[in-house]
Write a structure and sequence with these properties.
Two copies of one chain form a homodimer.
Chain A lengths: L3 E7 L12 E7 L10 E10 L3 H4 L18 E11 L9 E7 L3 E4 L9 E3 L5 H5 L4 H14 L6 E5 L4 H12 L3 E6 L2 H9 L5 E4 L5 H8 L4 E6 L4 H7 L2 E9 L3 H4 L11 H7 L2 E4 L9 H13 L7 E5 L4 H7 L8 E5 L1
Parallel strand pairs in A: 8-9, 8-11, 9-10, 11-12, 12-13, 14-15
Antiparallel strand pairs in A: 1-2, 3-4, 3-6, 3-15, 4-5, 5-7
């Protein structure tokens, strides 16, 4: 029997909202390659779908990272098991997480790739390595604490607060003693922000006037805004910032699935008079501090102070549909697909 | 003979570009008032015209500071001499600088006003107190060093670089060992940036493609941008930022004389991928460090490392016309009017 390498390829570059027709399924007979020194062969098992992958589907040059080549496999963070190794740090049988391709078998060069290849600690499920202890959580942790710099007692607002990054960002702020308001789409998600995550309030951007609600909830203004969404939600928060507010820009989901980028504040003088700081960031700049961050996240998790919701789909064939759900609110937690 | 108090009043709120018809001259017989404890009576002598005053002419609510009331005197930074005093820190004969009204006689309450009332050091000309050692220079000093945070060897760009704030900001960066590029309007101003201020290069936004020139001059990107202007110049710099760039937003002159505010960056994902920090500021937040800053500025001045150009007009009647020159590039240095 021939072993197959299943793949999902970028069939064409989406215009505006991505659709299933932008993806193409492909399978090829698989022959294990000869590994070079330092390389490992990984059988991918779990794929993480994140909104930012939409950016990598654009033509080269629009985003900082290399875009996916036409006809090439989709790339995204995934986890798998090492099935052949010429790297002593990654023996056969260990788990790894890294930016990988949407295919069954991937060769990685952990010592020389630009993006980190992480060994999954023994005993940790691959789903947790991609989920509650994954790159999204680290992004949330560093973005909130190092970029937002909230102080205990301050009012913190998080957009995309029901998502895999936002939900962790909100809990990090709550855990250090801030008052936290989450913005999410739909009554169910909003109820969960308050009941499951213990946030102080939630705003449903689909049915509420975000600016008016922020005015009610934050009469003294917003001290820190962790922004995953951008666009109108950024404008609504800018209407309600406190003096010396800090805005940590994690992503701009409002714009990913569009031909138009998400613009910044409408009136830059607001930044001057209110002395607002707006700062973009990526997790990689803080990677050297990841071990300490993971320890803190694990402590909070063990203490029951870090809830994390996974929307786990079964089957490699589910990948494009699962990814597209991110842009319609069709997911219910961090979206993972078991291949 | 009756003593007169001459005044310039806000006749109406400008729509878009301000004109002379927005100002109204007025004079009233002046009787020295009874001063309360702590108050001083000042004979104003020199008025500083700054673009930001245009914002105070708008309707209340659009800017952070109180707007000028219709029919009330224009306000702006000015300097004068104390002619009656019930405040021991400000004896008769000493010079003061503060936000004052465009009129001959002003009562100040130095201990209780929100904006600082500064005593002019003995022996310092009022023109220097408003000019090279004035609030604009302190704004430039703190904005560049505390908000821009340039490191020696980095590439720094300053817009409005021929102006009273920009020219100091550019020299501060040059003095600490940065490579500095100034943006200004017109060949004369640009030549002066290089020849008189010793900047490394200048860009004439009136005749050159700012983005293309920045690309040539900063192939490794702009590390720090000190922005007085905003609008298209901000966009041009955003096209050319280096990773981890810092943008210190001092003002947005491009928008002051308009009904439209100056918007922020066109694509907030650029902030994320390039990890850019954009921060607005006002000088008041650093006022407690002003003495040390002034000492540094005086040292540089004495060493010949802080050039400062004053465009001095004579006559109280010149005030509105001088102010309006700021928006047409009709001034040649920091604009002061001797009343």
């Amino acid at each position: 029997m021939t072993t197959l390498n299943r793949r999902w390829l970028l069939a064409r570059r989406p215009r505006g909202r991505a659709t299933v027709d932008d993806f193409r399924y492909d399978e090829q007979p698989f022959t294990p390659p000869d590994l070079a020194d330092g390389q490992v062969l990984v059988r991918t098992r779990v794929f993480s779908c994140a909104p930012t992958m939409r950016n990598w589907m654009n033509e080269p040059g629009r985003s900082y990272r290399a875009s996916i080549g036409l006809g090439e496999p989709i790339i995204g963070v995934a986890a798998g098991v090492v099935i052949a190794s010429r790297n002593p740090r990654f023996p056969v049988g260990c788990g790894v997480s890294a930016v990988m391709r949407w295919e069954d078998y991937t060769v990685l060069s952990p010592d020389t790739t630009a993006t980190p290849v992480l060994r999954v600690p023994d005993g940790m499920a691959l789903e947790d390595a991609l989920g509650v202890f994954g790159l999204n959580s680290l992004t949330a942790y560093f973005g909130m604490l190092r970029v937002g710099e909230p102080k205990p007692g301050e009012t913190v607002v998080v957009s995309g607060a029901a998502g895999s990054t936002g939900s962790v960002a909100a809990q990090v702020a709550r855990n250090i003693g801030c008052r936290v308001i989450g913005i999410a789409g739909g009554a169910t998600k909003c109820a969960r922000l308050v009941e499951d995550l213990g946030l102080d309030a939630a705003i449903d951007y689909k049915s509420e006037d975000v600016s008016a609600r922020l005015k009610e909830l934050c009469p003294d203004g917003v001290n820190v805004f962790y922004d995953n969404v951008g666009g109108d939600i950024l404008h609504a928060v800018m209407d309600n910032v406190a003096v010396h507010a800090r805005i940590a820009v994690c992503g701009q989901v409002a714009a990913y699935d569009s031909d138009q980028p998400a613009p910044g504040p409408r009136d830059m003088m607001k930044l001057v008079y209110w002395r607002v700081r707006i700062q973009g960031f990526v997790m990689g700049d803080y990677a050297h501090d990841a071990p300490a961050a993971l320890e803190q996240l694990r402590t909070w998790r063990d203490e029951g102070r870090l809830a994390y919701r996974i929307d786990l789909r079964e089957g490699f064939d589910q990948l494009p549909g699962a990814f597209l759900d991110l842009f319609t609110g069709g997911n219910d937690g961090a979206l993972l697909v078991r291949g």
